[in-house]
Amino acid sequence: KAGVTQTPRYLIKTRGQQVTLSCSPISGHRSVSWYQQTPGQGLQFLFEYFSETQRNKGNFPGRFSGRQFSNSRSEMNVSTLELGDSALYLCASSPKSGGGGSPLHFGNGTRLTVT
Amino acid sequence: DQQVKQNSPSLSVQEGRISILNCDYTNSMFDYFLWYKKYPAEGPTFLISISSIKDKNEDGRFTVFLNKSAKHLSLHIVPSQPGDSAVYFCAAIKNGATNKLIFGTGTLLAVQP
Question: Does the CB of B106 have a partner CB in chain A at under 8 Å?
Fold first, then answer.
């Protein structure tokens, strides 16, 4: 089985622009979660989608949004980029949502640099 | 509010010896605890997990111990190998209809040949 695929791997954007990141989960996985990793804050939960519905949202401003399509692929969008948005954005998939016993499988991330 | 803490930013161990990575948590509502390993430029890889109703789980060279009264868990790697050198993250999750993981800040393990 192919793993979680994130595109693009690297992205450079300018302050004020917007960006869209893409994630294809493992085949059969219906839950997709997004995390932001920064040196100062570590890995922080952004949001989770399951069957095209947002299940949970982390403590991030409304500039961060996401969606999930009927094939379980997901996108996240960041509008009006700020320098502090520079981070590694990680996508993770799982067969189900909740329960804790089914671990998340992560992609290799998209490295976003905002200049 | 850091609900999951890894107080040691780094750890150095000789090859063949035991590596012990520690993690503390504050929220007694967590139901599962997981350990992930991360190499640079890659996503975290799941290692092992433990349910809050257990105190030990073992998988090959990896064993996780949970002490609920102390709100403490540890990951033991025996024997340590140079390929184990990576950042190790402890994570916790509350039971419910969500996959929201709360991560610790990570411990960089260096296994010296």
Answer: yes
Rounded mean pLDDT of A96-111? 85
- How far CA B100 is from CA of A98, B16, B22, B42, B93, in Å, comes to 8, 35, 21, 20, 6
Residue A28 has phi, psi (to 5 degrees) of 95, -15
For A85, list phi and psi in degrees, rounded to 5: -80, -5
State the pLDDT confidence band at A19, using cuts at 50, 70 and 90. Answer: very high
Instruction: Classify residue B108 as exposed, middle or buried by CB count within 10 Å of its CB (0-12, 13-18, 19+).
Output: middle
Answer whether A42 sits within 8 Å of B34, measured CB to CB. no
Mind telling me how many Å the CA of A26 is from chain B's nearest CA? 14
**Any residues with CB less than 8 A from the CB of B85 and at least 6 apart, and which?**
B109, B110, B111
The 3-state DSSP class for residue B83 equals helix
Which of B31, B42, B97 lies closest to A55 in CB terms? B97
- Asked if A60 is an interface residue toward chain B (Cβ–Cβ < 8 A), one would say no
Would you call A55 an interface residue with chain B, using a CB distance cutoff of 8 Å? yes
Per residue in B33-73, pLDDT (tens digit) is 999 999 988 999 999 999 999 999 999 999 999 999 999 99
